[in-house]
Amino acid sequence: MSLSRFSQLAPEAGSVARGWVKVPNVEPAWELPAVVVRGAQDGPTLAVTSGMHAAEYVPIEAVTRLTRWLDPAALRGTLAAVLVVNTPGFYERSIYVNPRDGRNLNRSFPGHPDGDPAERVANFLLEELIAPADAYVDAHCGDLIEALSPFTLWTRAGEGEVAQSSRQMAHAYGFEHSLGVEPDSVPGAAYASGALRGVPGIIAEIGQQGVVDEASVQRHLRGLQNVMAHLGMIDPLGPLPPPPLEMDQMVWTRTDISATYHPTVAVGEDVQEGQVVGELRDIFGETLRTIRAQASGVVVFLVTSLAVRAGDPLLGIGVPAGR
Ligand SMILES: [Zn+2]
After folding, report:
1. Which domains does the chain have, with CATH numbers?
2. Centre of ligand 1 from the C-alpha of residue 320, in Å
3. Phi, psi for 109 (deg, rounded to 5)
């Protein structure tokens, strides 16, 4: 199977290559730090991205370590990784978006070769990295202003073979929660665009708030290794992880006003629909809104910034399957 632009980095079996891959037709230049590890033996191609959100450091560190840990002589198949997708935002420490056009890259797929910079980058990654692969992992964590409970996200995309393969990858990763959602539940996400093109894929999230904590890096790395073992690319490193709590919906609560945010729940906490989960106040401390849980489930995502803007998310509640 050809990996097009990325395969040119490491055309020889049993080799590793690192380099910058330039996205065509984006000025000023938008270059992607990429690593291709081509195994000595045949096997599937796994595409991996991190740094779609530039200040999500745990996955960037974990994917970088994976590329340095893999031994091409023992690898079956190929790993093709982009370590930081949002390179213009990296040294800016951009939250959510890229500084070129203010767009969230993981809401810009499938993108367009003639669109704005985010759409061009998205389209390039879809056509050159994700669609030619046999499986795809998009590694994330909570952003600079987010806490989260570890989870994997995959798309049901018609309940077919691709959905089942994505679900198995999500479970192999070994995180606490596995969320199977409709492909349009997060419009423009890379993993869903890949799945719609027939490539099983997941988002995996652990870590938060700009902290490169070693425990989360280790668990992200182990998740990637577990998926590679599941795909037959490496030997298993240990027993299978315990099965996750399966969820089938993420219910987001957003703010309609710019305010200060005072959540009263923590990530991982069980909440009941209607329960008070926080307040919005004005800058003088006057209560403007009481925030109530919009579903019963587990607080998977929680914004931890005092300042929130109208339209911003406040929290995400994962609803366990069958509830
Ligand atoms: Zn992210």
Report:
1. 4-243 (3.40.630.10), 246-320 (2.40.50.100)
2. 22
3. -85, 150
> Residue 281: which pLDDT band, with cuts at 50, 70 and 90?
very high
* Ligand 1 centroid distance, CA of 146 (Å): 10
Tokens coding 263:
């959540």
What is the Cα gyration radius of the chain? 19
The total number of residues shown for the chain amounts to 323
Task: State the Cα–Cα distance between residues 186 and 206, nearest whole angstrom.
Answer: 18
Measure 143 CA to ligand 1 centroid, in angstroms. 6
Angstrom distance (rounded) from CA 237 to CA 226: 7
Q: How far apart are CA 143 and CA 95, in angstroms?
A: 7
Q: Among candidates 135, 137, 130, which has minimal Cα distance to 231?
A: 135
H-helix or E-strand containing 227?
helix 214-230
Please tell me the predicted confidence (pLDDT) of residue 1: 45
In the numeric block, which tokens belong to residue 80?
């093709």
b/e 102-122 (16+ beta carbons within 10 angstroms → b): ebbbbbbbbbeeeebbbbbbb
Residue 253 backbone zone (phi > 0: left; psi -120 to 50: alpha; other: beta): beta
State which H helix or E strand residue 124 sits in. Answer: helix 117-125
Distance from Cα 286 to the centre of ligand 1, integer Å: 32
CA 200–ligand 1 middle distance (angstroms): 19
Q: Which residues surround ligand 1, an ion (CB under 5 A)?
A: 53, 56, 140
Task: Give pLDDT tens digits for 184-207.
Answer: 888 899 999 999 999 999 999 999
List C-alpha distances in Å: 14 to 8, 74, 136, 174, 268.
14, 8, 21, 29, 42
49 CA → ligand 1 middle, Å: 11
What is the token pair recorded at 241? Answer: 């992880």
